[in-house]
Amino acid sequence: MTISRRVALRILAAGAAGFPFIGRAQDLSNPNILFIMTDDQRQDSMSAYGNTVLKTPNMDRIAREGMRFEQMFVTNSLCAPSRVSFLTGLYSFAHGVWTNGDGPQFYNGPGIRQDQRTFAQLLREAGYYTGLVGKWHLKSMPTGFDQWVIFPWQGEYHDPDMIANGTRLRMRGHADDVVGDQALEFLRHRPRNKPFCLLYQFKSPHRSWTPAKRFEKVFEGVDIPLPRTFEQKLEGKPEAVRAAEMALADLPDFRDQVPAGLPREERKRRNYELLVKNYYRVLLSVDENVGRVLDFLDQNGLRENTIVVYTSDNGFFLGEHGLYDKRLMYEPSIRVPLAVRYPARVAPGSVDRSNMVLNVDVAPTLLQLAGVPVPLGLHGRSMVPLLLGAKVPWRDAFLYEYYEYPAGHCARKHRGIRTDRWKLIHFFEQPQEWELYDLQNDPDETRNLAGSRAHAATMATLKARMAELRRELGDSDPPGPPPLAPGCRDGHLTGYAP
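RESULT FIELD:
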């Protein structure tokens, strides 16, 4: 591999030559950090990623003025586990937040364990002034922040209760505007003698998709294209997928507008239109409030030396395979946006189209850019070389995991491996089931090849690679045969599957 002298010097200046420990080696003053996270925002719900219905000029501004990653994935498509992976650089099985907190007690941790070190804590110890506003979504109260104002659990869209440094308050207005107001308060009143790190985290576009009044009528009369797999009946997919309670026709949120007595296909189409339009409407208020904070940075001389990261905790199905929600290891569920703006270092208009980056990569990246030592043992890798435009060896596969069962739409526990071309999914409790997809020839994941003799060798190779990844990461199963998957109905335990 050959890189230019200029790129090599930039990598050395950033201290990017060593993994997994990176020392303090940078000649710029410590950059500020603005980490923006939404909830359940799939990658293509930004116009920068090709959406032709939803216009997101401020999200796009981050991508246009920095680098956009097209192959950004989460390692567990569920809110709380993914958020802790962003914060710690570790997989769920290592950081201990397996579920959202509604599953069996064995997998139901109270929140971030005290022995877990987040990038916010490490930055604070290094002299950063740290803040958190908006959605926290963990059962433990925040630590590692000088100031924090959060929604209790999911939060409400209108006039939300919030907890400010331990005190409960009632705010007025739409949740996204409230979070924007709190972000600006943090920035206006921060100490000027310290770099800052602000986690700016929105409720939107999480269920129940309640837009601000000014956006309630947007998209009326607009035709929303159906996904290519909208009419798919899940033929050939495992019973674990077909039994999951995620059918769009059964979405309960719009029952006042979509009567239960309508034919199933009519309910499905009407739910789809209402879901997508309201999902897009709440993202309009996110975009507006992202713009308010970007304008503040520009107007106060903070633009050049502030790293702005825009991402989401997981994706979401909008009718693909006739589904809603997330959890399953299909592309709309696991693929999220990632845009990074850092004018002092990252070339504007950059696009990384091929490297698979993960939620666990964010913590080591931000620590390295801040000149703070990256702890040993993280599962993620610093993306600094990619941000600087270097062609470096990168991962050829990644591991996915999901554990919240029987709670959470009855989506059974599974893990899988994704490469550039292939995806193998294993529902690992008995009865064990498999899925295999050729993403090159079947990007919509419609043809399950797991039972094909013609693909037996590919499947064996992927199984071996998945086992290798688990060993490398330190993941292992308890001794003995796989347990039986409990029965599930309406998201609740009903006994054991036969």
